[in-house]
Structures are given as C-alpha cells and as structure tokens.
Amino acid sequence: METLSSLIMIFIGAALINNFVLHYFVGICPFLGVSKRVDTAFGMGLAVIFVILIASTLSWLFTFFILRPMAPIPVWIWQVAGGNPETTVDLSVLSYIIYIFVIASSVQFVEMYVRKFQPALYESFGVFLPLITTNCAILFACLEIMKNLQDPTMLWGLHEALILALGGGIGFLIAITLMAGIRAELDLCDVPKSLKGAGIALIVAGIMAMAFMGFTGMDRGVEQALSALGSR
Amino acid sequence: MADQPTASERFIQGILPENPVYRQLLGMCPTLAVTNGMKPAMTMVGATAFVLIMSNILVALIRGLLKPHLRILVFTLTIATFVTIADRFLGAYMYEMSKELGPYVPLIIVNCLIISRAEVCASKQSLGTAVADAAGMSLGFGLALASIATVREILGAGTWFGMAVLGSGWPAWGIMVLPPGAFLVLGLLLGGVNWFDDRRKRLAVTASE
C-alpha cells in the first residue's frame, strides 16, 4: 500500500500538478510547433511517451549500475585494478554525455525498428521521431531520475523511474492535445495581426498554465484519501 | 562560399535582425524557465554564451572531418562536454545559483539555438566567422532574456537585480514570477516586437513613396 500510494503521487505530480510543459517549460518547441492540428499533436504526444519510456529505462540502468556515486560496476573495476577500497568512486561527471548519447541512439534505433517492422505505425508518427532527440522533456525525465538516484535517501527503483516517465509523457500528451484543440478554434477568431502564430499560442499557454495551477494541493487530498483507504 | 555572410554581418544579424528568441523562436525552454529574476537569467545567459562560443570554435575547427550522417551526434556530444564543464563550474563557484537553476543548466544541451548555430554557421564557415556568429547570437539571447526578466521581476517582485525599484507599496503580482507569467509576458512582448516591426516597415514604405 505504501509503495502504491507513493507511485500514485509520483504519477499525479508529473502528469498534472507539475506538468512537464506548463510548469517546467520542457518540450516547448514541439508544443508550439506541432500543435496546429489535433491528430498530429496526438501522434507527437504518443511518440514522446514511447521514447521517454525507453530512454528512462536505459538511463535508470546506466545511472544505477555505472553513474551514481559508489555504483557497483565502477567500484568492482576499481578494486580489480587494485585501487584503494576507501576511495569514493564517482562517475557522475559523465552523466550528461551518456544521457544525450543514450537518447540520440535510442531514437535512431526506434526509428529504424519502426520503419522496418511496423510500417503503419511509421506512417502515423515516424516523422516526429527525429525531432524528439532535441526534445527537452526526454532529457529532463532522465535528469529527474538521476537526481533521485544520487540521493541515497531516495534511491528510486526502476518502477518509480518508469512511473515518473509515464506521468511526464501523459502530461505532455494532455497539454499538446488541449493546445491543438484550442488552436483549431483560434483559426476562426479575429486575432490581432501582430499576435498571430506564436504570440497568441504563448498567451493561451499562459492561461492553461493558470488553470493547471488549480491542481496544486491535489496531491495532499489524494494522499489523505489513500491513507484512509489503507487504514480501513 | 561567396554568398555566405561575413563575420561582421553574422555578428550584427544575431543581435536583432535574427534574434534567437523573438525572430527564430529558439531556446524557448530556458527563456521561459529562468526569467523570474535578473540574476538567474543573466547566469543562464553566461552559461549559454560560454557553451555556444566554445562549441562553435570546436565545430569550426573540426568541420573538415565531419561526416554528414554523424554530424548531429558530434554536435550534441561536443555541446554536452562543454555543458558539463559549465555545470561543474557553477556548482563549485556559485553553489546557490546552481541549486536555483537546477536542471536547466544541463538542459542547455538540448537548446536548439546551439545546435542550429553549429549546423548553419560553424560547420560551414571559418573560425573567425563562427566566433563572431556565436558572440552575436549570445548577445541577442542575452538581450531577449534581459527584456523578459526585467518585466517579470519588476512587476512580480518590485525589484530589479534584487534592488527595490517600485517601493514597498507595490502589491507584487505573484503570477508574474510563477509559470503562467512567463508565457503571458513572452507572448505579449512577441506581439509588441511584431507590431513595432510592421509599423517600421509601413513607415519606410510611406517615406519612399
């Protein structure tokens, strides 16, 4: 029960309260660029969820076994090589390079696989895949996972990392789909000429961010409800 | 390469005519995230300028060796190296600021601005042009962030660089330093820049007639 409620908290936190787009401002480029039509926006959102799950799994594995302070593999190599066992072995200086490498190569492999074996899927979201490499949301998820793995009191497991990634991806999907719906309606409105395009999109995003601020405090309510459920 | 812009043209273009934020809409994520005050915004500009200039220098030096299908990967890894240096430097000498900027310093890696400059300018032109281009773009990025941060900090807290500007009677507009304020201010400033530009073009047309 304890773990389940903490997982639900992580999910709601990433998807609604601290929405990746509207609270942390990551993934703004596709949010403004690919939100002109609802179906393409939805495809982009699904592609992001797909890649974010793969990249987070890989980055959790790399962080847990190699990159965090006193990770098992470098410590073992250090001791086999005859190093002083008292020394703290910390490879976290390499994390950014490894993460961006993992993201770029996993996007490449996913694109190749999808193009070869799932032509229908490639038709629907293949065109967005290369764009995702420079989508900050993916790297941001990896960095959050790293932060929670390097802190010895948190030490997230793979399930927590995956729930965070799923929540973030679904939050992105919700935000970009809502945005595309609003922009489709905006086409019929008389927007001042200088605000057309990105200007009005940013103002709409500001109003959406205000609406999403209404979710603040929801985590406490859910926590109380869950603990009441657990004690019954 | 006769039709490529020269170093001084590149420098001038980066500041206003091709301003990275207002004209090209690049690097939006730090633009929105760290402009709740002048201090974090200027630290961010410093870190971005360092990474942009260093990566442009390195890419311009190795441009003869680049293979077309691997170039984006090489750019990203180059940028990631310099971002690690900038992040460690901030952590060592400006610890409080590096805590406040949090994940946005490593997120410089995926700032489209830096990759696009490597692709458009540094991988095609000589070292001097690449440096001038990076300096101009950094200045343009700095001006854009400063304009947004000025509006947000003065309206949101009544201060500028931590100095009181509007007096203690100012009812701080809390929304301005929260996420929605970033979107609203950037949207309105973008509209203002477009309006000003249109007006200047109209005036130029009427003057020539």
Descriptive report:
The complex is a heterodimer of chains A (232) and B (209). Chain A is mainly alpha-helical and 232 residues long. Chain A has 11 helices and no strands. In chain A, helix 1 runs parallel beside helix 9 (158-186) and helix 3 runs antiparallel to helix 9. The N and C termini of chain A lie close together (12 Å). The model of chain A has no long low-confidence stretch (mean pLDDT 84). Chain B has 209 residues and is an all-alpha fold. Chain B has a domain at 7-150. Chain B contains 9 helices and 2 strands. Chain B has helices spanning 7-15, 28-33, 38-61, 71-93, 95-101, 112-122, 127-157, 174-177, 179-208; strands spanning 159-160, 163-164. Chain B has a two-stranded antiparallel sheet. Chain B is flat and about 60 Å long. The interface between A and B is large, with 41 and 39 residues.
Write the layout of secondary structure elements.
The complex is a heterodimer of chains A (232) and B (209).
Chain A: H1 2-17, H2 28-33, H3 38-67, H4 72-80, H5 95-117, H6 119-125, H7 129-132, H8 136-150, H9 158-186, H10 198-213, H11 218-231
Helix pairs in contact in A: 1-9, 1-11, 3-5, 3-8, 3-9, 5-6, 5-8, 8-9, 9-10
Chain B: H1 7-15, H2 28-33, H3 38-61, H4 71-93, H5 95-101, H6 112-122, H7 127-157, E1 159-160, E2 163-164, H8 174-177, H9 179-208
Antiparallel strand pairs in B: 1-2
Helix pairs in contact in B: 1-7, 3-4, 3-6, 3-7, 4-5, 4-6, 6-7
